[in-house]
């Protein structure tokens, strides 16, 4: 079986810090929001922990951004510019996840160092990393000190609007993590993609042997 180095060290360090941090942010966020339902930590401890983890993840985001901006690996995030090609590839990938995978068909996407994402991952990760994560961190930062950032908070419609956006994104990220972990378990073995995010190396699935003449 061939191996391909697709996740450089900074990406792996960023990813696991981010994943672990997001789970803690969700847990402490639940505690802050639903104090009467969840009582693992005191309200004060949950707020302090939530703020600190938030700041660590904001700094960590710049590790991810810096790595991609200052290396040619940014190519993995380049969108497919032909809408026709993009939709065909997305459709093939959806067919695979919804149907082909249950019939043992091979994954239509063949990763390479500069095209490690399939069409669905490519769009999803762009939306998450370039839009939703920055909005999540920005709204969190505003609410960390509403007095200091009062003019900015007012500009965006007041504390209720900023808080609603933050909570809606909390719901989106909670759902994203479930779907993301499920999809990440659909490699040629259930742990293949997880191992790749730990070691950096993705094992390439052997092409099925085709019959003579085909
Ligand atoms: C328990 C939590 C998580 C687990 C187990 C997990 C697992 C994985 C795995 C196995 C991969 C590599 C396979 C793939 O490309 O899909 C991956 C990639 C990725 N994950 Fe996660 N993840 C988690 C949480 C998150 C969170 C919270 C985010 C963002 C908010 C995230 C964003 C990403 C991104 C952007 C990539 C592609 C990274 C790159 O190569 O540039 N993940 N994740």
Describe this structure in words.
The protein is mainly α and 214 residues long. The protein has a single domain, classed as Transmembrane di-heme cytochromes, Chain C (Fumarate Reductase Cytochrome B subunit, Up-down Bundle), CATH 1.20.950.20. It contains seven helices and two strands; from the N terminus they run βαααααααβ.
Which terms summarize this structure?
single chain; 214 residues; mainly alpha; two-stranded antiparallel sheet; binds protoporphyrin IX containing FE
CATH class descriptor name: Mainly Alpha
What small molecules does this complex bind? protoporphyrin IX containing FE
User: What is the H/E order?
Assistant: EHHHHHHHE
Compute the average pLDDT.
93
For the biggest β-sheet, the strand order reads: 1-2
Number of domains: 1
CATH architecture: Up-down Bundle
In CATH, the topology is named Fumarate Reductase Cytochrome B subunit
CATH superfamily caption: Transmembrane di-heme cytochromes, Chain C
What best-fitting shape do the alpha-carbon axes yield? elongated
- Please state the CA-atom Rg, rounded to the nearest Å: 20 Å
What is the tally of beta strands? 2
Main sheet properties:
2 strands, antiparallel
Helical residues, percent? 55-70%
Strand content: under 5%
Task: Give the terminus-to-terminus CA distance.
Answer: 23 Å
Q: Provide the low-confidence segments as ranges.
A: 210-214
